[in-house]
Amino acid sequence: MPKSIISQCLRVLLPVSGAVVAIHVLHSLTLDRIIQYVELPFHSPRISAALDGYRIAFVTDTHGISERKLHGLASRLDKGKIDLLLLGGDFHHDMERARRTIEILSRIQARDGIYGVEGNHDTHEDLFPVMDAHGIRPLFNSGVHIRDNFFLAGTADVKTFPPAASIAEATENAAPGDFVLLLTHNADITMRQPTRGIDLVLSGHTHGGHVRFFGLWAPALTLSRAVSHYGQRFMSGWAKSRDGVPVYVSHGVGGYFPRVFARPQVIILTLLRQEPTTPP
């Protein structure tokens, strides 16, 4: 290729590349440091009339978040009139920091209480007694009826305990007519185990890809199995399990590295009854 053409290409590419880098750096230093509160409606005919409008706050991956931001998060949710608070694991690898996080989150007022699961940075032998001491109920391949016809299940972390994590055990006490919500740190489990009988899955773990190119492509998820074995399938937002069950993956609120086009999130889920359609 003639040097003149190379030179012309460089004159175009260098400014464009510089602009792309600048946009990503700017996003990382501004919006990616502000927690986004995502209002998420979920319609289903399996939601009873009594649960219509039921509000669930989902907070996950708090590791690395400052106490100042954590207090702000707790204050905001405390004013949000939520019915249930769910914690998706990865509180902090340092147990003292995890203890402080749990203490702050436990002050949030939720009508039907606070429940949580472990993440891959947690050790449930240390974590669960602290949760219990602060009135937060841990779920480890177990479940509970929150209200009539509403069953909440939670699994062990599939990355930390692959043989132990069990959706079947977590949901075994659900009744046929229940709306079943599964809380699990890593959505990969929904591709490895049956999810039939479950209506909705909430997960975290992937941090929205953490570093994404214009929010569309996350190299760490696509090119490596260190985070997920299923590429970008569970990067962010809505996905499907192997059986076609809706899975929502939150970005979480913390992390150990700068976020790029992957804003931290708290999910506010509202259950809405959808009347079954009658064939004409």
Strand order of the largest sheet: 1-12-2-3-4-5
Question: Looking at this structure, what is the CATH superfamily of the largest domain?
Answer: Metallo-dependent phosphatases
Whole-number tally of structural domains = 2
- Helix count from the secondary structure assignment: 7
Regions with little confidence, pLDDT below 50 for 5+ residues: none
Radius of gyration: 21 Å
Q: Mean pLDDT, rounded to whole units?
A: 89
- Named CATH architecture of the largest domain: 4-Layer Sandwich
Would you write up a description of this structure?
Helix 3 (95-105) runs parallel beside helix 4. This protein folds into two domains: 1-33; 36-273, Metallo-dependent phosphatases (Purple Acid Phosphatase, chain A, domain 2), CATH 3.60.21.10. The model has no long low-confidence stretch (mean pLDDT 89). The protein has 280 residues and is α/β, with parallel strands linked by helices. The longest helix is centred in the first third of the chain and has 27 residues, at 3-29. The N and C termini lie far apart (67 Å). It has seven helices and twelve strands. Helix content is 26%, strand content 22%.
Overview in brief:
The protein is an alpha/beta fold and 280 residues long. Helices cover 26% and strands 22% of the residues.
Index terms:
globular, six-stranded mixed β-sheet, Purple Acid Phosphatase, chain A, domain 2, 12 strands, 2 domains, alpha/beta, 280 residues, 7 helices, 26% helix
